[in-house]
Amino acid sequence: MIEARAQCRLADEYDKAQERGEVASGRDGPGAGVLHGNAKATAADIGLSRKEIHQARLIRDAEQRKAGIIKKLQEDKPTSSQSRTLTNNVKFASTP
Question: Where are the domains of the chain?
Answer without folding.
Answer: 2-94
